[in-house]
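REQUEST ID: PR-0412
SUBMITTED BY: lab tech R.K.
PRIORITY: routine
TASK: structure prediction, single protein chain
INPUT:
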Amino acid sequence: MLDEMKKRPVSIGLLAHVDAGKTTLSEALLYCCGAKRNLGRVDRGDSTLDSHSLERARGITIFSKQARLELPRLAVTLVDTPGHVD
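STATUS: complete
OUTPUT:
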């Protein structure tokens, strides 16, 4: 618990145009940091951050989502955003 309290909190927001790969990058970061066991993909409909049925049906991010990444010296809050007005 003390180690987690010493971690520096950081927030990262991913902003880019639709189909730029924001959710794919988010999924890869979650996987590489050990927060997920499987690498989810938007095109397969199994990404962690695109969990709403509308997002899975359309293959796009509609709602902003956040995830937590724990690194040795950082506690990262990652925010994945939609790339369009929907």
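NOTES: Helices lie at 2-6, 22-32, 53-58.
REVIEWED BY: pending
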